[in-house]
Structure formats: C-alpha cells, structure tokens
C-alpha cells in the first residue's frame, strides 16, 4: 500500500507561508521601486529595419499564413503587386476576394 498524502498538514503549511494562520507571519518582501524606462539610442540596425516595416504595412489585416503564401509566390512589396493583376494574386493558394479588398485598403494597386 502506498502512503497517503496528509492534505490537512499540507494546507496548514501553505496557510502559514501565506500568513493566514496566527502566530506565523508571512515573509515580507522589500518594496521595489520601478526603474524609469530608458530610451534606447537609435542604431543603424533600427534604421535599416524601416523598409521592412513598409512591406508589413501592405500585409496589415492578413493572417500570417496568407502573408507567407503571398511572399512565397513572390509578392513582397507594393511594386510586386503593381506588376501583377488581381487574377494573378487570386491564383495564390489561400487568397480570396476578402484578402484582395484588405490589400486594396492598405494601398496596393494592381496592374490592369
């Protein structure tokens, strides 16, 4: 037979640690003052990442799977969409009319 866990004893120990049982105080923690947030200096790496932000603005409102399928098909920027027609983009797996309207709202112009 295996030993049974003493639940009452475990509960009392837990309550003592929390300070709920008289005669046993909870451990006091030192008050920590929150540090003022530091503003990081802008580095070259952050400046170079700005063009990528423009590319992600094109895909705003689309799921990650749709974004990945468009990038895999070669549509990574507005210039790529300008070279293709709506039918070409609709041919990509997972892209439908709702995704096309979302792309248009983000400023994408398609070739006619």
DSSP helical segment count: 7
Taking the sheet with the most strands, its summary is:
none
Shape: elongated
Please tally the β strands and state the result: 0
Calculate the terminal CA-CA distance, rounded to whole Å. 80 Å
Average of per-residue pLDDT values: 78
Low-confidence stretches: none
Determine the structural class based on helices, strands and strand pairing.
Answer: mainly alpha
* Strand portion: under 5%
GO molecular function: nucleotide binding
Protein name: Helix-hairpin-helix domain-containing protein
Biased composition (Low complexity): 29-48
Region (Disordered): 16-50
Give structural notes.
- With 112 residues, the protein is mostly helical.
- It has a domain at 62-104.
- The protein has seven helices and no strands.
- The chain has helices spanning 7-18, 44-48, 50-58, 64-73, 78-83, 86-90, 97-105.
- The longest helix has 12 residues, at 7-18.
- The protein is elongated, with a radius of gyration of 29 Å.
- The model has no long low-confidence stretch (mean pLDDT 78).
């Amino acid at each position: 037979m295996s030993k049974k866990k003493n639940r009452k004893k475990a509960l009392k120990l837990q309550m003592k640690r929390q300070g709920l049982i008289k005669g046993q105080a909870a451990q006091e923690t030192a008050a920590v003052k929150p540090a003022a947030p530091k503003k990081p200096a802008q580095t070259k790496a952050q400046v170079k990442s700005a063009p990528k932000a423009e590319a992600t603005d094109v895909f705003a409102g689309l799921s990650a799977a749709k974004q990945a399928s468009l990038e895999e098909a070669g549509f990574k920027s507005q210039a790529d969409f300008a070279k293709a027609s709506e039918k070409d983009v609709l041919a990509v797996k997972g892209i439908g009319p709702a995704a096309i309207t979302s792309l248009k709202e983000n400023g994408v112009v398609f070739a006619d």
